[in-house]
Amino acid sequence: MAIPPYKAPASTGYDIVIVGGAAVGSSIAYWLSQALGASASILVVERDSSYEFSSTALSTSAIRQQYSNPINVKISQFGIEIIRGFAERMAPYFKGEPAPNLGFREHGYLYCCSPEGVEAARARVDLQRSLGAHTLFLEPGLLKDRFPWLNVEDLGGGAWGSRDEGWFDSMGLLNGFRRAARAAGVEYIDNAVTGLDVAGGKVIAARLATGQTVSCGTLVNAVGPRAQQVAAMAGLSIPVAPYKRYSFVFSSATPIPGRMPNVIDLSGTFVRPEGELFLTGNTPLDDGPADYDDFEMHHEEFEERIWPALWHRIPAFDALKVQTSWTGHYEYNMLDHNGIVGFHPEVTNFMFANGFSGHGLQQSPAVGRAVSELIVHGAFQTLDLSPFGYERIPRNEPFLEEAVI
């Protein structure tokens, strides 16, 4: 893939070096800059500032509260708070220009549920509602009344997020965090970390593709699907790898009336409106680790698997035409599909912010704040993300999330 020309850093040493400047890395940079101001030097190293192949740019840019773990629900609730107030929060950094309006489309998620899965689905809804979410469980009749275009014959019902779920502008979020961080003095460079120097149980320096070496007080790994590459530079290992996801935007000869949510079918296929068009994707059959630079498209996934699932669930989707498509990467945590957040116990200034398994964009506001708290205060101050700590990885103790798409 084409990479912009690399640039050298302005200094030879920084208090904090963040490797990766997409949504998670830039959120970390933003929250650190808010907490530390000019009292700390912060460098963000981003290998491709066009973000063309970043998971942020290639994501489906959605947020939900329908999780089985309370901490994931709370993370998304904070994300919604940030999304709703983003333009106001960012206004001071845009000085006369319009601040990013993230265009939040509050259509909700609709999880289709099999008859056998009703009990578990109801339990998840009860959990979410106990935490303040607005999820509703709809039995087949009520589901058909609300969404008459849906085939409910083989369903036991559906869980619908009636508020605070939907989709938004991913690059608006990234660009806002990035601009605010830079305005506060954070330095961004187009470069790649090619090695780390470790001594005395700490990362003491990062080596760059342009030949420079920069010393650092703290090293933050926020490179998304390339997380294991950076971990290995410090002699560490995490079970995170790129997993390909294919996205298709299509037109339908028959429109879908009303306010269509993001429908998650029993097959794992999802579909939602995208203006006059529709966006869809699924978990491919060949799901497994991919090469870091493998963005080859598999168009047959739509014809062979996605369209039949769509037509079964939404019979109006009998005449479809793909308009555009792309391949993105999940930074997939193969242990438990949840993020890894926190310092390594032996390389004590190496911070993980990795493995969000397709949830990184929606979780980036809370993760950025949490990483900042750990660096600045040595402990979480708001949401306790300790279940995401690295320590569970070598113990092989999954912190499982049932609601994975």
Report the radius of gyration as a whole number of Å: 21 Å
Strand-residue fraction? 25-35%
The CATH topology annotation of the largest domain reads as FAD/NAD(P)-binding domain
Strands, total number = 18
The topology string of helices and strands comes to EHEHEHHEHEHEEHEEEEHEEEEHEEEHH
By CATH, the superfamily of the largest domain comes out as: FAD/NAD(P)-binding domain
Mean pLDDT, nearest integer? Answer: 96
As for the number of domains, it is 2
Count of DSSP-assigned helices: 11
Keywords: Oxidoreductase
Organism: Mesorhizobium waimense
GO molecular function: oxidoreductase activity
InterPro entries: FAD-dep_OxRdtase, FAD/NAD-bd_sf
Describe the structure.
One of its GO terms (molecular function) is oxidoreductase activity. Residues 15-374 form the FAD dependent oxidoreductase domain. InterPro entries: FAD-dep_OxRdtase, FAD/NAD-bd_sf. The chain contains eleven helices and 18 strands. The chain has helices spanning 23-36, 55-58, 70-84, 86-90, 118-130, 140-146, 170-183, 227-233, 300-313, 360-377, 392-395, and strands at 13-19, 42-46, 62-63, 109-113, 135-138, 157-161, 166-167, 187-190, 193-199, 202-208, 213-221, 240-252, 262-264, 270-274, 277-281, 320-333, 340-343, 350-354. The strands form three sheets. Strands 1, 2, 8, 9, 10, 11, 17 and 18 form an eight-stranded mixed beta sheet that branches. Strands 5-6-4-13-14-15-12-16 form an eight-stranded mixed beta sheet, with helices on both faces. It is globular. The relative contact order is 0.19.
